[in-house]
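Journal club side-thread
Mid-discussion, someone asked how the predicted structure for our own chain would compare to the paper's figures. Pasting it here so we can look after the session.
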Amino acid sequence: MKTYTTFEDINNDLKRYQLERDIAWEELKLIKNEYKEDLHPLNWVSTALKLTGKYRFIALIKKWFFK
């Protein structure tokens, strides 16, 4: 446990804790927005198209080399 000797020390710690709290709050808001974007249907479609393209490429290579 920290012991304080002056009110200035207490005020400095209170300001620091408030800034840490504000930073944590902003990080939570950012994470929330990232999850909203990830759950957007257009992102699902683009992910599905990427996976389909990779699968087609691999299937094409297998067809060429393993006839």
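Post-session note: Helices lie at 7-38, 41-65.
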